[in-house]
């Protein structure tokens, strides 16, 4: 069998497992309902345990976040790191068809940080496919903000380069090689450059770079680590509809719980790392959709498993997937979630390369592979099993099964497990209020606005199914069929 067919087999497996679960759930409801009842009970118990530790990690992470927010990081950096001024921050801002207002807000946030901005090399990375709009926008941005930074570089990524797919990864790859040549000419040590790759709508916390510099200077072997902040999608959260808000907050909660388990943490969206590591791996991969998390795997393989993600308990704030209208927003959200779910492409990549890197400990390989595989499987199937498919055998079971004690007790068991799991929903609803920006900035204020933010969580099952399970199944099915997904740029309004 050729390598191509072997790799295609690995690409088929995740989607095939999803569809096997869906088909068996329906078929067994008719022919072996008792088997499925046992499975659903076990699965719901497992899910309840997951909700329990999710809540635990969420509140531990929130405690660390609050503690970090109170620290004066620039003062701490100056006191504990004598040579901190050697560090330069290289900031990549890839953009495609973004309005000048979005880019201006991001640039403005960079000028307002509690850190000397003359240490910043900011790169605004445009696309030739958006050349006219980008040249007009970048000209305004450069005129307004060049004076704040050590360098403000504007690049234009050519269209249709060989071996690329249009998207953020190919733009970053092309721009990274260009900037490397400039850095070589400036004779700046790679080890003294910290790279931050941000989505164009990212607004950093004022202490972000001071905190990042402190971590980079004090953690063990900082060149072998990426640094992952808390991703908040609240730049426009007060103007977004409830479904968008639930999805945005759920993503933030997921990131916060993952930060508490760095041994399984991947990079996601906006992240930071050493320039030395980027050069060693040849920059971000240019022919995939999920370059933000793939860069971790590239480094993990390059350094024989000696690479990790350090949690950063400070936020970077971005936009929800809000469109022009309610329905446009939902369509935008669906495509964004499907793009994120395309992270399933890492599963065959990991299996393929792990078996070739025999020097990486098997314990690490199995841990990362299981976490990624179980994650994409649960994302796709758990909401359907909990809210829909788990009820089928109760409706379709024959009289012989209905008379059994297990059948008669199952509805009460599932209901009790669901009620206990709802505690997690209530905790999430209350905790979400602490992450919201000042409502006065959006012309909102008062008790009723906050009450709406709590009551919106009633829609969580709908959001989990329509904008969690369905786009994930969509993505995995496309990979299974070889209908590869391109990079979708979510609209931001």
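^ structure tokens above, recovered residues below v
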């Amino acid at each position: 069998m050729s390598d191509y067919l072997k790799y295609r087999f690995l690409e088929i497996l995740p989607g095939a497992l999803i569809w096997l679960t869906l088909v068996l759930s329906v078929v067994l409801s008719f022919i072996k309902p008792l088997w499925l009842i046992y499975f659903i009970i076990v699965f719901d118990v497992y899910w309840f345990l997951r909700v329990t530790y999710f809540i635990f990690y969420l509140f531990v992470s929130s405690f660390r976040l609050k503690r970090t927010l109170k620290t004066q990081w620039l003062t701490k950096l100056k006191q504990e790191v004598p040579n901190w001024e050697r560090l330069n921050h290289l900031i990549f801002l890839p953009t495609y068809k973004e309005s000048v207002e979005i880019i201006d807000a991001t640039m403005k946030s960079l000028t307002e940080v509690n850190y000397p901005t003359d240490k910043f090399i900011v790169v605004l990375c445009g696309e030739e496919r958006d050349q006219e709009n980008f040249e007009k926008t970048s000209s305004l941005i450069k005129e307004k903000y060049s004076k704040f930074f050590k360098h403000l570089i504007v690049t234009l990524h050519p269209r249709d380069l060989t071996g690329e797919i249009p998207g953020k990864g190919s733009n970053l790859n092309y721009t990274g090689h260009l900037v490397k040549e400039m850095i070589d000419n400036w004779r700046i040590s790679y080890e003294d450059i910290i790279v931050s790759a941000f989505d164009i709508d990212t607004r950093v916390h004022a202490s972000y770079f001071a905190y990042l510099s402190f971590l980079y200077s004090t953690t063990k072997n900082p060149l072998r680590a990426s640094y992952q902040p808390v991703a908040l999608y609240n730049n426009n959260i007060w103007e977004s509809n409830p479904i968008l808000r639930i999805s945005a907050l759920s993503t933030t909660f997921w990131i916060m719980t993952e930060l508490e388990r760095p041994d399984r943490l991947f990079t996601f969206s906006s992240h930071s790392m050493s320039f030395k590591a980027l050069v060693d791996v040849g920059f971000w991969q240019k022919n995939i959709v999920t370059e933000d998390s793939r860069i971790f795997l590239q480094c993990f393989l390059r350094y024989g498993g000696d690479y990790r993600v350090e949690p950063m308990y400070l936020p970077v704030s971005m936009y929800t997937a809000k469109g022009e209208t309610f329905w446009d927003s939902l369509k935008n959200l669906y495509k964004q979630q499907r793009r994120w779910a395309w992270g399933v492409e890492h599963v065959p990549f990991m299996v393929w390369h792990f078996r070739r890197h025999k020097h990486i400990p098997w314990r690490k390989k199995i841990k990362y592979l299981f976490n990624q595989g179980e994650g994409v499987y649960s994302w796709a199937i758990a909401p359907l099993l909990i809210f829909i498919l788990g009820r089928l055998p109760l409706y379709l079971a024959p009289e012989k099964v209905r008379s059994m004690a297990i059948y008669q007790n199952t509805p009460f068991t599932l209901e009790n497990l669901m009620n206990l799991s709802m505690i997690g929903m209530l905790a999430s609803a209350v905790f979400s209020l602490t992450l919201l920006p000042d409502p006065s900035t959006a012309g909102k204020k008062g008790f009723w606005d906050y009450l709406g933010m709590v009551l919106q969580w009633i829609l969580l099952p709908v959001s989990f199914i329509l904008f969690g399970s369905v786009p994930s199944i969509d993505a995995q099915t496309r990979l299974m069929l070889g209908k590869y997904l391109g990079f979708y740029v979510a609209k931001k309004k």
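The chain has a mean pLDDT of 88.
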